User: Which sequence fits this backbone?
């Protein structure tokens, strides 16, 4: 379940930025946040998630240095029980986790090469149906308003990402993401995208 929700969160954040100049950086960041939501949860430096529901209310980045993400995602959390320790070992062997860790290594970020600040807020228009989401095909209970206000600083370049997204699903496994107000720096992007959610494995 947590893997499915994390994938949905990743898609929500990522979709509107395919054509923006900071797409690859946002891809790396959002995939890492998704991976940190596995079982047991891992902490990324400078990233705080609020809310007890299936979908977090807020994700806050505070001078979050992406060069530290690889170690955070490959190191076993301290003081975890035997069951969580076993789950950690399983998650480390998953193709998704290995793909994200390899991406971070290939980027070769050094200290302060890519730093993230800002907030993503998520407001559910209705309560998600845990059982249908667990099955992974009926996404009709997904209806969200997502507000993003992020600043990415990469080797002297600064990307300011702001906007409000409407996200809703249907019973056939489709997610629709729309926005009339989304900007990267001073450039406006109209968002009207449809994606068919596939199983995360």
Assistant:
């Amino acid at each position: 379940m947590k893997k499915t929700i994390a994938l949905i969160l990743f898609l929500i954040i990522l979709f509107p930025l395919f054509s923006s100049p900071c797409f690859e950086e946002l891809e790396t960041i959002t995939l890492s946040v998704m991976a940190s939501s596995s079982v047991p949860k891992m902490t990324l430096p400078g990233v705080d998630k609020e809310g007890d529901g299936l979908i977090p209310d807020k994700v806050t980045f505070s001078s979050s240095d992406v060069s530290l993400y690889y170690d955070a995602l490959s190191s076993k959390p301290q003081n975890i029980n035997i069951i969580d320790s076993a789950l950690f070992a399983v998650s480390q062997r998953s193709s998704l986790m290995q793909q994200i860790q390899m991406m971070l290594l290939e980027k070769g970020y050094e200290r302060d090469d890519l730093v993230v600040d800002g907030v993503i807020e998520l407001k559910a228009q209705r309560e998600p149906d845990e059982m249908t989401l667990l099955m992974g095909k009926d996404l009709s209970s997904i209806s969200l308003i997502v507000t993003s206000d992020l600043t990415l600083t990469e080797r002297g370049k600064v990307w300011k990402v702001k906007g409000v997204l409407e996200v809703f699903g249907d019973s056939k496994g489709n997610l629709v993401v729309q926005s009339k107000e989304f900007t990267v720096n001073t450039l406006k992007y109209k968002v009207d995208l449809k994606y068919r959610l596939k199983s995360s494995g």
Remarks:
- The radius of gyration is 16 Å.
- The first strand starts at residue 47 and ends at 50.
- The chain has a mean pLDDT of 77.
